[in-house]
Write a structure and sequence with these properties.
Order of helices and strands of chain B: HHHHHHHEHEHEHEEEHEHEEEEH
Number of strands of chain B: 11
Order of helices and strands of chain A: HHHHHHHHHHHHHEHEHEHEEEHEEEEEH
Helix content of chain B: 40-55%
Strand order of the largest sheet of chain B: 3-2-1-4-7-10-11
Strand content of chain B: 5-15%
Shape of chain A: globular
Number of helices of chain B: 13
Distance between the termini of chain A: 46 Å
Helix content of chain A: 40-55%
Largest sheet of chain A: 7 strands, mixed
Strand content of chain A: 5-15%
Oligomer: heterodimer
Distance between the termini of chain B: 33 Å
Structural class of chain B: alpha/beta
Radius of gyration of chain B: 22 Å
Largest sheet of chain B: 7 strands, mixed
Structural class of chain A: alpha/beta
Radius of gyration of chain A: 26 Å
Chain lengths: ~550, ~350
């Protein structure tokens, strides 16, 4: 190590980093382990990153050191984790750089000592786990039943809007993605994966979330024809951002159908494996879609499933066969998790509907509508009260479907809830996602309905398929939510609209939330395709699902 | 003849007042505030006292009761009219008792013994003629009018005792009392207001724009988001249409949900209501409590094909039980809901509860 000491005395910081890498290689060689292909790839990528940093000469030296510290504890990951890997150090970097800014600058000697101590401990731990247990310190949520889940998870980008470092990271990531997909025809004027800008004054409590306007779609900045993004993905993104496709089931099904189309049109470039390259191809699509509208929990689970299926394709499989297999997988996913699940849920739910019931529903949930139509076909006698709320007024769509079926309906706005609730015998609610701590994430207003129903002692039943269960935990509606276009709140009555020029008024803000969370003590029963469970059993279902996979 | 002219003039005024009451009630919300209604009613009653023909207090009370019944029938949901009539009747009783020389205290004590023994003596009580009764009554009504004019200011003066800086306050719909209350506090303190827009009339929008003119940080939220944001709210301050005799409220629809959400988060609920809104009615949910307006506000005629097969409701008021309310702020100070019945006995005479 005398060599490295001598070089460090120069005081040039990026020399010390190269140093560390050399130390690592020396270390690995000394232990007699051959550098695996993955490790070589990783080192190559880090060298590239360093070259870019050196050229731009950006960031305080602390940042570099932190990055090294972050990448050293995560030694080897399978190559298929590369897109996740690319992104994983980035948010970790972002959060750590924020932390680094607050810490006072440590002396070089202290940092050197820390690094050495960490490398020693890494060496001993590497020798300890000789077998291919490569999944330990990574940020993958999969865990064997004996191990506890790792705590460090990726903080999603869409709740870090107030952190300028995170935004810079996202912009760089989008740029990287468009560069990686293109050949020689780089279109200098058009942006391939656009970064959408926020609109209007954001309420201070929600400054960490995006707020987009429907009038400026993300496709304005895309060049025509789009070379990086598949046209059906562009169409899907536009449909999401304009609200043409809404509702978690509809969005997931549309996403899966579009991915089928993408897989159909995909052709493996030479010298690349389908299992790895296709996943890389999908990443810019997913970034684009999340720019159009933040991904829902059901979409997230579907994407995870697809990526897993793709990465499990054996390398000797021919391309046509692989594509056919993937399409069959997607079809069976839609069939099992969505269509058959709703049949199973209807069967359970119909047991709960008796003759003479007055059922209250809120907004437009495809699952709840399906249940009511099925129950009506089975000759149950009941009537329905549809509660609706501004500004989306989705209840009108539900009203149309139920009336077309022939069900007797009443329609009120959510402010008349206390008036109508004494007549109600049951409340059926749909869900966007079920969180691991038992909270129900659903359209804004659902928690209010559950609250008032509890006050009047009316049972509340939530209907949700298991593919919407997610491992996140959340206790309030602020930390992770979606802000819709604030202009939707403007209304014209009697020719006057008071909020028309709300942008010009300095201290006025409009808040258009999309989701809220309902605490589990308001919910009496959750009906899923696995049966009827209480709200608190959601983590049990998640655990069983993970073991199965 | 001057007498006949005065009479026709008086009846004309009464008729025009009645027709205005009928008209304004059918619009969206209240086109005129309760304070103006109260003031106009009292002014009209003063005119009746001055110009109508009556010989003694009993006759005057009969006239006022008759006109009062017509006025409340014109717009049953506008309770301030009835409240003012009862106040004036109480004034007349007091003035009569003072002229007779007997103190008011003994009359008001309603012990069981008194009810059994002195039942008959109240019958002919008001037949005596006093020359100065008219002047006294008119003077008392003038005092009442000055009190009415000062109610909003009295309430706003208490604002600084209840709002500290950097608070988040929530309100619903539009109440002129609450608006004045918040504006007064904003002169000295900085705080944030969240206004629930209160569909379908969306009066919250007007409230928000008017608060912004005083540089108060305001946010407008749809009704569905009330529970979602309630965890960050420090206080809920609302106005009401009527304060009922048990301490409950008859307020704009959506207020019950707001009160339940506040109770769930243990957020104090403060009601700013001047005393003329206190009504000796107990809530009766079946017939008289609810008022409905056209369901066109809820489901417009553009949805024509389903409109005929669907029942749509648009209630205007909500009942809020007294257990959900923390404090009443009125022009005579702050009170707990359990004290409201006592205030009522000071304002109205029990025999006047039924006009």
């Amino acid at each position: 190590m005398a060599d490295s000491d001598g070089r460090q005395v120069d005081g040039v910081n990026h020399a010390t980093d190269k140093d560390v890498k050399l130390q690592e290689i020396a270390l690995a060689k000394n232990e007699g382990k051959e550098l695996t292909k993955e490790e070589k790839q990783r080192l190559r990528k880090e060298k590239k990153q360093h070259k870019k940093n050196k050229k731009d000469d950006k960031g305080p030296p602390e940042k570099e050191k932190e990055k090294e510290k972050a990448s050293v504890p995560a030694p080897s990951k399978p190559a298929t984790q590369s897109p996740a890997h690319k992104a994983a150090p980035a948010p970790v970097h972002a959060s750590e750089s924020a932390a680094a800014a607050e810490k006072p600058a440590k002396s070089k000697a202290e940092l050197r000592a820390e690094r050495r101590a960490r490398q020693d401990s890494e060496r001993t731990s590497k020798q300890g786990k000789k077998e291919g247990g490569q999944q330990s310190a990574s940020s993958k949520p999969k865990a064997t039943p004996n191990e506890l889940q790792p705590v460090v998870k990726r903080l999603p980008e869409h709740v870090q809007v107030d952190d300028p470092a995170a935004l810079k990271k996202l912009a760089k990531k989008l740029e990287r993605q468009q560069k990686s997909g293109q050949g020689c025809g780089l279109n200098k004027t058009g942006v391939e994966v656009p970064l959408r800008s926020d609109y209007g004054y954001k309420v201070s409590l929600f400054s960490h979330l995006h707020q987009y306007s429907r009038k400026s779609p993300p496709t304005l900045q895309i060049s025509i024809p789009a070379t990086v993004i598949h046209p059906s993905i562009v169409r899907l993104g536009l449909q999401y951002s304009q609200g043409i496709i809404a509702g978690s089931n509809a969005r997931s099904v549309a996403l899966l159908h579009t991915f089928k189309q993408v897989i159909q049109d995909y052709s493996t470039p030479p010298n690349e494996e389908l299992s790895r390259d296709l996943v890389n191809k999908l990443s810019p699509y997913i970034s684009f879609l999340s720019q159009c509208r933040p991904l829902s929990a059901s979409m997230g689970n579907a994407i995870k499933y697809i990526k897993k299926e793709i990465s499990n394709i054996p390398s000797q499989c021919k391309e046509e066969e692989a594509k056919g297999k993937l399409q069959a997988c997607i079809d069976s996913y839609i069939n099992e998790k969505i269509i058959l699940a709703s049949e199973a849920i209807s069967k359970y739910a119909i047991e709960k509907i008796s003759d003479g019931d007055v059922i209250l529903v809120y907004g437009c949930s495809s699952l709840v509508n399906h249940i009511l139509c099925k129950a009506f076909e089975k000759q149950r006698k009941f009537r329905v009260i549809v509660v609706d709320s501004r500004p989306r007024l989705e209840g009108r769509e539900a009203l149309r479907r139920l009336v077309k079926k022939g069900i007797r309906c009443t329609y009120v706005l959510i402010s008349a809830l206390s008036y109508i609730l004494p007549e109600v015998s049951k409340v059926f609610l749909g869900a966007h996602a079920l969180l691991a701590n038992g909270y129900v994430m659903s359209r804004v207003g659902t928690s209010q309905i559950a609250l008032v129903a509890k006050a009047y002692n009316v049972p509340v039943l939530v209907c949700c398929e298991t593919y919407k269960f997610c491992e996140r935990v959340q206790t309030d509606s602020f930390v992770s939510n979606e802000l819709d276009d604030p202009d939707d709140l403007i209304v014209t009555r009697n020719g006057k609209s008071h909020l028309e020029n709300w942008q010009t008024v300095k201290s006025l803000g409009l808040l258009n939330l999309v989701y809220d969370v309902t605490p589990p003590d308001f919910v009496d029963l959750v009906i899923t395709d696995l049966g009827m469970i209480p709200c608190t059993s959601v983590p049990v279902v998640l655990r069983v699902k993970n073991v199965d996979q | 003849m001057p007498g006949a002219d005065k009479e026709t003039d008086l009846s004309e005024r009464i008729e025009s007042f009645l027709s205005e009451l009928k008209r304004c009630g059918s619009g969206a919300g209240s086109l005129r505030g309760s304070a103006e209604t109260a003031r106009e009613t009292t002014a009209l009653l003063r005119r009746i006292t001055a110009q109508a023909r009556w010989g003694n207090a009993g006759e005057l009370m009969e006239i006022i009761r008759k006109e009062g019944r017509r006025m409340t029938a014109a717009q049953p949901s506008e309770t301030t009219v009835g409240n003012m009539i009862r106040r004036v009747l109480k004034i007349i009783r007091e003035e009569y008792a003072r002229s007779r020389g007997s103190s008011e205290e003994t009359d008001q004590q309603e012990s069981l013994h008194k009810l059994l023994t002195s039942g008959g003596s109240s019958e002919d009580n008001f037949r005596q003629h006093f020359t100065h009764l008219k002047a006294n009554v008119i003077e008392a009504i003038n005092e009442l009018l000055t009190e009415l004019e000062g109610t909003t200011d009295n309430i706003s003066m208490q604002a600084l005792e209840h709002i500290h800086s950097n608070e988040v306050i929530m309100t619903i719909g539009r109440s002129r009392t609450v608006e004045a209350f918040l504006k007064d506090a904003a002169r000295k303190r900085k705080f944030h207001v969240i206004v629930a827009e209160c569909a379908p009339f969306c009066q919250g929008h007007e409230m928000a724009t008017s608060l912004c003119k005083e540089d108060i940080e305001t946010t407008v939220i749809p009704d569905a988001a009330i529970f979602a944001v309630m965890s960050r709210v420090n206080k809920v301050i609302i106005g009401t249409q009527t304060v009922l005799a048990n301490g409950g409220l008859r307020a704009v629809n959506g207020t019950h949900t707001l009160a339940l959400a506040a109770k769930h988060h243990s957020t104090p609920l403060i009601v700013c209501a001047p005393m003329f809104k206190l009504s000796p009615q107990f809530p009766n949910e079946e017939d008289t409590f609810h008022k409905f307006v056209s369901p066109h506000e809820v489901l417009p005629f553009t949805e024509g094909e389903i409109l005929s097969k669907v029942n749509a409701h648009c209630p205007v008021f909500d009942y809020v039980p007294p257990e959900l309310i923390t404090l009443f702020i009125s022009n005579i100070g702050g009170n707990a809901p359990s004290y409201i019945y006592r205030l009522m006995s000071e304002l109205y005479h029990p025999e006047d509860h039924e006009l």
